Amino acid sequence: MKTKLIKYFRSLIVLFLLIFGSVSISGAALDSKGTNFWLMFPGNLSGSDYYQALFITSDFNTSGTVSIPGIAFSTPFNVTAGTVTTINFPQLVDVQTNDAVTNMGIHVTSVDEVTVYGLNRRSATTDAFLGLPVDILGTDYIVLGYENVNVVNATQFGIVAVSNGTTVSITPTETTGPHPAGVAYNVSLNEGETYLLRNGNSMPADLSGSLITSNLPVAVFGGHQCANIPAGYYACDHVVEQIPPSTAWGKNFLTHPLATRLNGDTWRILASEDNTNVSINAIPEPVINKGQFIEKIISAQSIITSDKPVLVSQYSNSSTFDGVTSDPFMMLIPPYEQFLAGYTVSTPAAGFIQNFVNIVAPNSVVGALTLDGVPVPVVAFTPIGASGFSGASMPIALGTHNLASTLPFGCFIYGFDSYDSYGYPGGQALSQIAIVSTLYITPRTSVNRINTPHCVNGLVKDQNNNPLPGIRVDYERIGVNPGVGFAFTDVNGIAQYCYTGTNIGQDMIIGTTGSLKDTVYKTWENPLPVEFSLFTSTVSGNDVTLNFATTEEINNSGFDIERKTLSSSEYAKIGFVPGNGSTNEPVSYIYTDKNLNSGKYNYRLKQIDINGNFEYFELSNSVEIAVPDKFTLSQNYPNPFNPSTKIEYTLPDDGKVLLTIYDNNGKAVATLVNEVKNAGYYTVEFNASALSSGVYFYSINYKGLNKVMKMTVLK
After folding, report:
1. What is the pLDDT of residues 91-105, one digit of tens each?
2. What homologous superfamily is domain 530-625 in, according to CATH?
3. Deepest of 160, 302, 566, 698, by most Cβ within 10 A of its Cβ?
4. Residues 506 and 522 sit within 8 Å (Cβ to Cβ)
5. Domain at 433-525, CATH homologous superfamily
């Protein structure tokens, strides 16, 4: 299950564990895909060919169940990845009962994540909606639908509870039955129960802007039983969309006109806060307050921006608005930072002679974005001002369609028939972009060798400095290694983006989420003359063996072996291992550092190329020579010798040591050690250049223990 919205996460996690089982918190995007949905169908006009259906699709081969507990309906389903499974109901399951609690919630559960679309179909009045999973639902909503125009007066919204003990507070914008405008009233719901409020007042009654809050997350649907859009035009059509919680609203939107329409489309922009400033193509609109909206006819592509979060919907107008085959539908438009990188969508199986997909895509993927595996032609796209995006309208056949790109893009499905239509967004991310406050990318500057990976971390926080999960950060590389990509923030609010530079020079990496932007820099240098695959150490007694290996070498002269103690600030050279010049074959090396005293040591390699250039490679760990566990005296080496030899001994504890050399007559000829020594390993060199050939003895006395061994001087 995807990460819960931060706003209610802390207070509800225990309840969610009880209701939905174990919760796995991940860095996955909060989006319209899920494994648990509670949906409903707000009522359409009755008439011929009237039914409701669900379209279910997935990126995986998966299975699940659709049930309506209130009518004892349950059916299993299977979905093949990249296709759509249709669920038809044996009876009408829309909610027509006004201002009453019913039990018509539709429960969709699945093994893997699915996307669910709802189709409320009736001849000459149809619409569809994108279902939102339980894990992105919230407790704070503002309704968006459409007004009454004295034809069919039935502006409406619906609510589904996903948990028992849900209390919903509703503040309607219009006096509806016993409920005065602007006065909150409560409705109590249990899991799967539904509530519909429909207003039949005369024009311009409109439940848009009604406030809905709850103690537990709920699903909310806005729309109209059969709307004429705009006022004064005919005919009416059912309009419906599931409304996202206000924390998932945005500030940056791009519009593309509906295909075939001649005089533009109706747009509504709904405010979540007071004193909201909205601009369309950089032209300011009148300031609106919470629950208020701007309604405009927009005939061309446009850029919509606001300084506070808003909800944006595109409406298809009634057929008489421009005299073309069409009718109203309602289609929410996500902010472009909530686009996805792939969609599987479907038209209704029949009943619509014209079907289209609108695409809003970054300019960098125009020509590469595919529809059913075939690139959408570049000529189909038109740039949307200076936004960096382009829009296209593509006709599609009846059935299932797949769209994919390397970068997120917007996808919107709709269709027309005689006095009929439907439309819905193909999907969207639903992260809390409304409360994003800061974006900070690290590292600010860094240096890499070419052909190695480099990662940047974009940290996203809210106004209270809390990290936000599930936020999409877009990245653009400008410089010697140009490119684009994106990542979603994890539970720590970090969106990590990695790439491998292949060209020497500098890249500027720009991260963007919404209107926030941050820039860091990356310098790429020549590759190392040696690529290491191994550098390790092993200890045997008081010997340290270094093992190192390379995967390739360029003009490699060899390696100085350097060592230092922890108390020393400088490395000292202790040996040299020849390299293998230039080779792309793996090479292994070994070096043993012998007869070390007890203590901790650090090692590094100084790789030297044929021209004298060098690089250092440090062993990642310190090496420790432990204190010996017993007192020993070893045979000198070499033996026989001329003129020098080495004598080794070990001390398990601190103590006075006397090491003496005697001739064959028992006369002392040299004293090598006569002092207190710490516990450890020792090697003493003895030079016999002043002695004649013969047999000699060396004796060690330590804490009352005495040991004697023989050695031979041979000249």
Report:
1. 999 999 999 999 999
2. Immunoglobulins (2.60.40.10)
3. 160
4. yes
5. Immunoglobulins (2.60.40.10)
Give the helix ranges, DSSP H, for 298-365. Answer: none
Closest of 489, 535, 481, 490 to residue 511, by C-alpha: 489
Distance CA 235, CA 323 (A): 11
Q: What's the rounded mean pLDDT across residues 156-176?
A: 98
Please give the C-alpha separations between residue 283 and each of 268, 587, 700, in angstroms, as whole numbers: 16, 67, 97
Strand 194-199 to 250-255 pairing: unpaired
CA-CA distance, 23 to 13, in Å (whole number)?
8
pLDDT band, residue 584 (cuts 50/70/90): confident
Cα separation, 615 vs 605, in Å, equals: 8
- Rg over alpha carbons for the chain, rounded to the nearest Å, is 38
Q: Other C-beta atoms within 10 Å of 540: how many?
A: 9
Are residues 493 and 460 in contact, defined by beta-carbon separation less than 8 angstroms? yes
Amino acid at 13: I
Q: Which residues pair with 355 in a beta bridge?
A: 415
DSSP-derived 3-state class of residue 275: coil
* 504 Cβ contact partners less than 8 Å away, ≥ 6 residues apart: 450, 480, 524, 525, 526
Q: Where are the domains of the chain?
A: 31-340+410-425, 433-525, 530-625, 632-713
- CATH match of 632-713 with 2.60.40.1930: yes
Around Cβ 473, how many Cβ atoms within 10 Å? 28
Adjacent-strand bridge partners of 601:
565, 623
User: Do the domains 632-713 and 530-625 match in fold?
Assistant: yes
Which pair of tokens denotes residue 377? Answer: 């032609």
pLDDT averaged over every residue in the chain: 92
Please compute the mean of the pLDDT values over residues 555-565 and round it to a whole number.
93
Does pLDDT of 46 surpass 90?
A: no
Indicate whether 672 pLDDT > 90.
Answer: yes
For the segment 392-444, what is each residue's pLDDT rounded down to a tens digit?
999 999 999 999 998 999 999 999 999 999 999 999 988 777 788 899 999 99
Instruction: Please name which of 121, 115, 106 lies closest in space to residue 85, comparing C-alpha atoms.
Output: 115
Distance CA 334, CA 325 (A): 26
